Amino acid sequence: MKAARERGVRAPLIEAELWKDEIRALSRELGLPTWDKPSFACLSSRFQYGDHITPEKLRQVDAAETFIRSLGFRQFRVRHHDRLARLEIDRDEIAKLWDGELRDRVVKGLREVGYIYVALDLAGFQSGSANLLLNLKSKANGG
């Protein structure tokens, strides 16, 4: 938000003092199909701190997440680690991947968008998981 303000980016809904719950309620009243869509953070949050983010990498992550969403998963992230896609899926849905056919489709689909290796994060979906590294570095430095 700070970077956006520094660049002069406006946020009309914030300016109108409309917050997530109100926006969802208004969307539902208006019959919008996205009223209960899970919130998704900016695609740049799929990268580790310090990684150089390019339009190509953003398109790759977007294609990967579009594919995973098409399989019926709702709460997940595809974390980009160069040639590796680290898949974080809500713990309630991880068991679906033990189905060999679905697992094979996930691997094939993520390879088709440019990943070579596909890993499942056993911790499941974690909003802000990139911050885990920051916490480890802080502890290592005595913080």
Describe this structure in words.
- By secondary structure, the protein is α+β, with helices and mostly antiparallel strands.
- The chain has two domains: 1-37, no CATH class; 43-140, Alpha-Beta Plaits (2-Layer Sandwich), CATH 3.30.70.
- It contains seven helices and three strands.
- It has helices at residues 2-6, 12-15, 20-29, 55-70, 91-94, 100-112, 131-140, and strands at 76-81, 84-89, 117-120.
- It has a three-stranded mixed β-sheet with strand order 1-2-3.
- Strand 1 (76-81) and strand 2 (84-89) form a beta hairpin.
- It is globular.
- The two termini are 26 Å apart.
- The mean pLDDT is 87.
Report the mean per-residue pLDDT as an integer.
87
CATH topology of the largest domain: Alpha-Beta Plaits
Which CATH architecture of the largest domain is right?
2-Layer Sandwich
Q: Name the helicity range.
A: 40-55%
Radius of gyration: 18 Å
- Along the chain, the helix and strand elements come as HHHHEEHHEH
